[in-house]
Amino acid sequence: MKTNFLLRTILCFLILFSIPVFAQKESAREVILIDKDWRFSFGHSYDTKKDFGHAEGYFSYLTKTGFGDGPAASGFDDRAWRKLDLPHDWAVEQPFSESASFSHGFKAAGKNFPEKSIGWYRKKITISNDDLGKIISLKFDGIFRNSKVFFNGFYLGTQESGYNGFEYDVTAYVNYGGENTIVVRVDASMEEGWFYEGAGIYRHVYLQKANPLHVALNGTYVTSEIVNDNASITAEVKLENKGHFKGNVEINQTILDALGKQVAVNTENVLAPEFYKTNTYTAKLNVKNPLLWDIDNPNLYQLVTEIKSDGKVIDQYKTSFGIRTIKFDPENGFFLNGKQVKLKGTNNHQDHAGIGTALPDEIQYYRIAKLKEMGSNAYRCSHHPPTPELLDACDKLGMLVIDETRLMGINEYHLNDLQRMMERDRNHPSIFCWSVGNEEWQIEGGITGERITNVMQDFSKSIDPTRPVTVGISSGFKSGISNVVEIMGYNYLGNGDIDAHRNQFKNQPGMGTEEGSTFATRGIYFTEDAKHYQSAYDKKPRSTFYSIEEGWKFYAERPYLAGMFIWTGFDYRGEPTPYGWPSVTSYFGMMDVCGFPKDNVFYLKSWWGKEPILHIFPHWNWSGMEGAAIDVWAYSNCDEVELFLNKKSLGKKKMEQNSHLEWKVNYAAGTLEAVGYKNGKKVLSDIQKTTGKPENIKLSLDKENVLKGNVSVVTVETTDKNGLHVPTANDEITLSIKGGKILGVGNGDPTSLESDQFIDDIALVAINNFKEQKAESASLPQQLPNYPENEWSDAFKDRDYKKQAPSYIYKGEFDLKSNSASNLVSLFYKKIGAEAVIFVNGTKVEPSKEDSQKYILNASILKEGKTRFTLQQRHCKK
Ligand code: GAL
């Protein structure tokens, strides 16, 4: 695979090595990852012909059960569709277009692109006869969006949310001992957010086989109370009975520590729920001297729930959880395990460079690790429920989380989404707060907002009373939601008077759910609007917004505020404010879309992190600007910093808490060096050196991620002859790989319109003008005869099936847009007669080896434009 890509300073690409098929085979419950080997094709949002005739039938799948038509039918021929593995985001594969959505990063997909807004996915699975009697279900972690799922032609349901997981029971429709077809129609023509959301099955899919009496979906809930050196654990389990079992079962709850050692156990005999009913059972367990979950030591435990009948385990279900306490205090902010913790948070959307929203699990860990490296301890899932793997990464790496539902409201649509998010996520120790909304301008300042918040807040307490609720509020902090919300979520200092609000509501804790929204292009130090470049110095971005430093100082100085969440940790696609086309990603991130740090990261490392830091910028390649005054800034947590240009001191300055230092330096090529002092002693230095031109390409592998999984991030940079990174390089790089796959590429430049992915372009071309005529003989010709021109009639129309001819000839034509030798043109055909011979442009073609009804057409017999196709078929044996 070769990839051409423009490089500005640094580029990253993501490699996939082979993925093992993962099956969690437990006694009586199997959860099998079925991400591999799907077929995909675009449909159409309103032209049913281009949607493969779906929903055109006299009886639709809503009229008669099992009547899935078009691709929804089991027998549909999808051989010409593209093969792919999940997770998949079709939006990121598309080119950029000025007429596409600003908020979604100008990808030519979804809204306004009817031919790129419907995606069809099909997969065949075998289910063995041994599975008869089990409950078979499909589990989807999330599809963007409005998905309809079919199984063996049966319609299972519609899921509007692009962010919540869901499950369908397919037991009644299974073909045991044979092939079964899963079909998903995804409709991404509507947007749910004002940020890039991707399109397609972008999260994992599982096949589950369970006993009819089993732990229900997201059916466990573990909470703990710590008294002295003991944690009293309440383990709730919801059992569901989809069979006719009547009588008692044993529920065995075992807690294992991180090493797998049993630390507590509880067994109870309970009466099983009735047919199609659920019951919830509660057990109390005790963990002595628990290892608490916190940011630095994210200790986890596992609850293993076993359901036993007649001594036999009929279901087993594992729940990862942590033991910790959380508290918000209106005077002193947030407490974790009784210790005050200032929230040093970032907001983030879910997309990443090169791969859009289809993140392999390894990249979730990569991103959370990058934020932790910056000193961040909290993450707000703005503005929707994340994928479960993100929360696993936060649990395992020690990152506090605000989990946010998508839309405010009090109806089924809103409350059901909130409930499903909470039931799925409430065992994650990382989650410390639920957010039920963000910047709902229509309602936030008035009585409607107040009423909705009251309902959502009380509703969430009925699902999880252990965590508080917040809403991100922006249009003044005076009335409406802010009067009633449990934890006040201030979105931006510039949007109201935070101190005044706090003085009025002294018992209401608060935090800055959004702060910043500053603009920066990584490695750029002069704003040039014509080029859509935003300088990376941390400046007040707009009149009502503040710099990162101003924001942090405000929150750091007020103990009553629990902390703040920067908008954003990473750049994301869409919202390229203050610009528009051709900028396609945001400028707000502390890191760019690849995760490469902008200079602000070092400000945060200095005041959020624990390590000694010294970082000076800009780079020192200003050829042509000799003598001009350049702003040099230092980020550091040293007491003092001294700056040297070519060994000459430019003065030592004292660093104020949560601040930075500045010098004006007349540019001369060479070495700019900063030296940091603590207690008068030199402890650190940082250097910016003028480099030569780019001469070498350096690749470095992110070893951390390679060790953990199959995906790795490779950083590509150019260096000069002395091996120095060239910060101003902008060269085209060609990438190729052996033995793996390049998942996507990115360079973090918001104005880069190069492809993110390089995939084969597949066009499905229909054969039109289908005509037929009878043939006198049953023998098939080896050369194309001259069939009589006046005998052709429309194919399969008005044929007298009682008086069939020995063979039939069909002809049709298809339009070939291009005929280059690198095209692979395959003709797929489904034999209805006994034997057939096919001619393309008069030449006889032979079936392919792998499929006797597929013909790979050689470019030499094809030409651009109309291509003639003739088929003679014998309908019965000679
Ligand atoms: C906020 C909003 C975010 C993002 C940000 C950009 O008002 O909550 O989602 O749009 O503005 O500045």
Please give a structural write-up:
There is one protein chain. With 878 residues, the chain is mainly beta. The chain folds into five domains: 30-210, Jelly Rolls, CATH 2.60.120.260; 213-321, Immunoglobulins (Immunoglobulin-like, Sandwich), CATH 2.60.40; 340-516 and 538-575, TIM Barrel, CATH 3.20.20.80; 614-689, Immunoglobulins (Immunoglobulin-like), CATH 2.60.40; 768-874, Galactose-binding domain-like (Jelly Rolls, Sandwich), CATH 2.60.120.260. The strands form twelve sheets. Strands 24-25-26-27-28-29-30-31 form an eight-stranded parallel barrel, surrounded by four helices. The longest helix is centred in the middle third of the chain and has 17 residues, at 447-463. Residues 19-26 have low confidence and may be disordered. The protein binds beta-D-galactopyranose (GAL).
